[in-house]
Each structure stands twice: as C-alpha cells, then as structure tokens.
Design a protein that fits this description.
The chain is elongated, with a radius of gyration of 33 Å. The chain starts with a helix and ends with a strand. The strands form three sheets. Strands 3, 4, 5, 8 and 9 form a five-stranded antiparallel beta sheet that branches. Strands 6, 7, 10, 11 and 12 form a five-stranded antiparallel beta sheet that branches. The chain is of the alpha+beta class. It is built from three helices and twelve strands; from the N terminus they run H-E-E-H-E-E-E-H-E-E-E-E-E-E-E.
Amino acid sequence: MRSSIHAIVHLWGKDGPDRQGGRSVWPTRRTTRRGRAPSKGHPSSGGGSVAKSTILPLLLVAGALTASATLVPAQAAPARAEVTVTITAQGTDMSGVVKSPRPKRCAADRTVKVFKLVGGEPHLWATDTTDLQNGRYAWSTGNTGTEGRFFAKVARKAGCRGDVSPTIRVRRND
C-alpha cells in the first residue's frame, strides 16, 4: 500500500492531482455551453458537490481495492461431472439410463425429458425420473404408441453437466 502512495505522489507531484506545474487541471470555464452560469452543484463552478480534496483519498481507496483483488487468487468453481443419457426403443416403448462418475449426485432422481421431432422442431413428449435398477439409474416412458424421431435430455444441475442423447427413430413392431 505504501509503495502505491509513493507512486501516485511521484506521478502527480507533492501538490496532488489538482495541480500540475503550478496550473490547475480543473475546468475554469464559468458558463455552460448555452452561456448560462452553472448551478451550485456543478463541479466546474468551484463550489461543487465533489470537493477536490476528496478525489485523492477516493483514488487511493479504489487503487487499494484493485490491488487487493488481484493479490487474492480467484477460487475456481468445481468442475461439473460428466453425465450421459441414453435412449433405446423396443417398438414404441422407450427407455434408457443416466450414467455419471458421481452417480448418487448426478444420475439418481434425475428428470429425463423425451422430445419428439415434428417438422424438425422438438416437442416435449414425455418425462420420467431415474430409479436405481440393477445397479444403473434407468428411466422408461412405457408404451407411448407413437412412432417418430425422439431424443432424451437431462438438464444440468449444481455440480453436474447436462446431456442430450442421439436422436432415434421409433417404429411399431408389426
């Protein structure tokens, strides 16, 4: 902190920021652009609301805050865990699994949204929540009875990434 004060004094001289080489750096014009005298609160009127003596302390405080912010390293947010959602179909019965290296946090009780592509636009078709089945977090829509192109999506949540499955074509078994 002391070295930054010396640097400022060195740059501005011992008279402070409002004097350089004996002349003022503040505006001396006593009228506005339209020829009227400025109001009492205008800084160029000399009796403004911002006193010249408060500028240096404000600059020093701002410089100290900036210097302290650069000295403290920013804490990086923890990396989000990878999440993978799959979709398969047997006839018009769609199901899949959600996998993650952090299964209890990122695969358990996750909402899976199934979208149908209609004219190239996705429309929400079904939702399900994952359950632990045979050591995997599985989801199933049951028999939708609908053919078409579908994909599954899991939204991201704190500490976990989201994922979108590949699009599959669903056809009835005849």
